[in-house]
Sequence to fold (324 residues):
Amino acid sequence: MKTLRRALVPLAILPFKNMTYAQKRDSIPLKVRAFAADKFPQARDFNLDYTLITPYGSSSRLKDHELPDNKVKSFQQVKTSANIYLIKKKSFLLTTSLNYSYTSMKTENPETAPGMSANNNFHYHSEALNINYFSRLFNKTAIYTASLSVDGSDMHFERLRGMVTASVVLKADHKIKMAVGIAGVIDPSTQIPVLPIFTYENRFNNGLTLDILLPKKVLIRKGISSNSRISLGTEINGTSFYMYKNSSTYEFRQTEINSGAIYEHYLGGNFIGTFKTGVQTILRARIFNKQESFKNYEWEANYRPSFYFNIGLSYNPFGKPKSK
Fold:
């Protein structure tokens, strides 16, 4: 699930980045809106962010055995990503996506989780090559994508995955943008191999914008100045990394729901600063042998809600705002 969501974010918004407005764009309001949208692109070309989670308790079990309660005293994470255009044609787009995360966790009872210690530091990376093809279907713009990715730790490359998507742009004008589609993942460890895609953006006359990208996020946005905006809503994220114990490779994977506020500020020169905060709820956390699937887990934990704080900086040379 985590891998699917991470890959869907840049792929699902391609229809919106490549569609032009159906209406004329010679009015000042439309030009201002287009410029504001360019300042805050959905997919960031280069991004670096830091996350801090307040302490939270948990209960867990090892297979069918209940374990003593535990507490995560400290959780910190640094993530960096890049979405780079390699070839861009009228009906063809080739990109690469690069991701790296460093996760640091301190727990009270490390013996309750296999492969864990009192102080844990994990490195995770993934690299993908994405091919996008644009055509017409039922007189609508259709986007077909194929992605091949590999991930791993600081010690080894681990998994090779594939993904295909197909989506249709139902509407794209200065107020409403909407697309639907379906995605499939070629990976025995994935939780959901086939998933629908729904992308919807509605700019209301009162200045509010409804931004939906399922299964990733639901947000309400509001510009508070010419260079800043605030968003309220929910985003789904994930944490994944590999662990090694007794000559075996295990994967830790969890799904997180972050509900709160996002503040973004255009800093000039294609730089955007971001601050996020709110309540984090972890739906499910499991450790499973790499040779097995997520449902055939060895360890599972239930975490109590906690507060999260995230600060980020992105640089977007490929989506440089153009003067109007």
User: Anything to note?
Assistant: The first strand starts at residue 46 and ends at 53.
